Amino acid sequence: MATFETIHLMGTDSTNRWAADHDDERDLVVWTDYQTAGRGCDTNTWESERDMNLLFSVLCHPRHVAVNRQYLLTVAMALAVKRVMDSYTPDEPLTVKWPNDLYWRDGKLGGILAECVLTAGRMKRCIIGVGLNLNQHRFLSDAPNPVSMTQICGETLSREVVLQSIMDRFAHYLELLETGNEAPVLDEYRQALYRRQGCHAYRDGSGPFEAELVTVEDDGHLVLRDNEGQLRRYAFKEVSFVIPPFIYNNV
Fold first, then answer.
1. What are 179-220's pLDDT values in tens digits?
2. How many beta carbons lie within 10 A of that of residue 195, not counting itself?
3. pTM of the complete model
4. 114 and 100 in contact (C-beta within 8 Å)?
5. What's the DSSP call for residue 124?
6. pLDDT band, residue 43 (cuts 50/70/90)
């Protein structure tokens, strides 16, 4: 099973950038108290109060994971985070919003950003960045529907303990992928999907519509069935989830 050197920074612009600049073939996880340029997908930023949340990036070299399966590395990390966080919310577990966000009810608890580098048709390295809201009580940006673990369960969680637990889980999933045992990882991911049941609102290039989630295919495409019974298949960024406003004031 893979082992990861752990590096702690008091602050940095981006843990993903730091990991990329320090790639010397080691597998490592770098985490920080604060980021000045934390990234989400595209141009999105990640709001995080200093010392409150878990901000980390994993640098790994999964050369036995097929290039057309690189999205499974994001799946593995999402499941690792979900499994650990579920231990704090056993009565109402987290879900994974396709393809890479962690949700509790309709609130966003975390996000994942993977950046892979390929060479000669093989995976050279992958950097998986994670922002996880642990202990922040108030969110001031206009990011939609943030929620934290301290709001959900009323506890202040140790970032070090949570990180180690996540990395133990991730190493397990990574070993399955490296040995070609994708099926249980995909099955668990599909069972964990946000909006796995019922009809919900979405939007694509043609406008809003309602649909039920059918599956996520082995290559990562999302399949929905609309109210007219038509199947709609989407790659990342081709469809958006229309999510109602969510404010959680337990704490």
1. 999 999 999 999 999 999 999 999 999 999 999 999 999 999
2. 20
3. 0.92
4. yes
5. E
6. very low
Task: Report residue 146 as tokens.
Answer: 């943030």
- Mind giving me the DSSP string for 173-238? HHHHHHTT--HHHHHHHHHTBTT-SSEEEEEETTEEEEEEEEEE-TTS-EEEEETTS-EEEE-TTS
- Secondary structure (DSSP) of 32-62: ES-BSS-B-STT-B----TTTSEEEEEEE--
CB 160 within 8 Å of CB 61: no
Computed over its alpha carbons, how large is the radius of gyration of the chain?
18
Are 177 and 183 contacting, i.e. CB atoms less than 8 angstroms apart?
A: no
Element (H, E) at 242: none
How far apart CA 147 and CA 145 sit, in angstroms, is 7
